[in-house]
Amino acid sequence: MTTHHGDGTDTSGVDWDARAATFDEEPDHGLRDPRVRAAWAARLRDWLPGRPGDVLDLGCGTGSLSLLAAEQGHRVTGVDRSPAMVELARQKLAGRHAVFLQGDAARPPVDGERYDAVLVRHVLWTLPEPDRVLRRWRDLLRPAGRLVLVEGVWGTVSPVGIPADRLTALLAPLTARVRVEPLSGDPALWGREVDDERYAVVASWD
After folding, report:
1. What is the pLDDT of residues 112-122, one digit of tens each?
2. By residue range, what is the domain housing residue 138?
3. I want to staple 147 with a disulfide (CB 3.0 to 4.6 A). Which of 42, 79, 182, 203 is the partner?
């Protein structure tokens, strides 16, 4: 699991096991505020398949988005590099149709399984060779599947991230069905006003 913490810094060297206990204190991580939780639930309902299916949540962290997907009837498999994050996700989704695995989001340890949707938030920008990673993720989808990517560009002095136009260009060889949804203007998603570039891309093959 690698993500940003709102200050534009590259956190790829962070000890995520050490950060796991406080990870959910960020409004958009823990989704503890009912308004933030409701905002993400509404977006997921739109992005994910309308009928219950199999969702792969890569870089799942403590499982907050996995939980929303499970509450909407989906069967969830979550993957994260951090054992501590995986354990917290298992606790959060105890009793639900969900499995959590420790592993690399770029090469998920899912043994040839296929999914109706692959959900990835704030992970792609940290990975080398994103074009190859996107092809690998596409190959994890069933024929009518969809790839849901939540990304952005953070920081002003030395911004990090991946702009929406670059991501859509990377997806262009894979599918013509790409929808970009700006997210910066919805403070309910982040628990505050934001002025950087945040967006979701939904690529589909249905």
Report:
1. 899 999 999 98
2. 26-204
3. 203
